[in-house]
Amino acid sequence: MTTTSRMLGGDQAVHDVVPSDDDLALLLLIRHFEQALLHLFARGHVSGTTHTCLGQEVVPVTLTPLLTPAFVFSNHRGHGHYLAQFGEPASLLAELTARVGGVCDGRGGSQHLFREGFCATGVQGESVPAALGMALNMKRTGRSEVAVAYIGDGTLGEGVVYETMNMAQLWRAPLVLVVENNGIAQTTATVNAMAGSIAGRAAAFGMRYAYAEGIDITYLRAELADPIERTRAGEGPLLIEFRTDRLGPHSKGDDTREAAVLDRLRRDDWYPRFAAAEPERFARIDQRQRRLVDQVVDEVLSRPRVPEYDR
Ligand SMILES: Cc1ncc(C[n+]2csc(CCOP(=O)(O)OP(=O)(O)O)c2C)c(N)n1
Fold first, then answer.
1. pLDDT for residue 13 is more than 70
2. CA of 293 to the centre of ligand 1 (A)
């Protein structure tokens, strides 16, 4: 399934469906949080490394309501997954800056967040078999939940992903594997690293597959609701390929893409498109979320550092 409500010939943006106030607020919370984080990193406030999900916000905002209740296994680019699930920027920022009140007391940092219903890892592919284990537990204990593993397309280079897909399908586990296909892994374009297709990988195991692309959150949710519900109902795992774009660097300042490519990505990004489609509503929510993130930054940085990380 794809949604491109954008082009009607030429290069003219004609009609983008701006999501509900709540969805737009969440998109903007994630966007401003990630942008603030890069500034904080440059000023030396971030403990450890970080990868932002700038450009990819539509993925967790679309999927999270469909996946609840779930146990989510996130990855190195997981702030959007966390904020969509818990909506708590302060606990996340405190974690990333090793201030008191962080999600896991400053021990996890950006890549290793843990709380009930959510676990992230910076080791590519590591979460996928763990998510299968959780899915099997859900099945055996009769819980109507799904286990979700978010991975990038580059992580399809990890063999354990295929062992897991095989067993998940064989055992009809309630596992949703979300591949955020942003067309690049660190500095390697997907076309230079992946033979075949993501759909073909799912087909090889007889696993159900859904494709999503675009920024029309309402439409995408309507299309994805049934496949996810079928996994919850016991029909076995689902692989969702969500085509998206990484707007920022891989981590911090390490973007090797051509300026023209980045210009195109910025132009096609949801932020300017939604701003153009509904300027007043967008500006109102945008300003509110900017202020919210500014306040969170000020409040969290005023907290004491976690003593054991006060180097
Ligand atoms: C097992 C393992 N190998 C290498 C790395 C280093 N590494 C971190 S992110 C990354 C690229 C991941 O690309 P992809 O899965 O496409 O996700 P994206 O960064 O595009 O979101 C690499 C190679 C790692 N974290 N884990």
1. no
2. 28
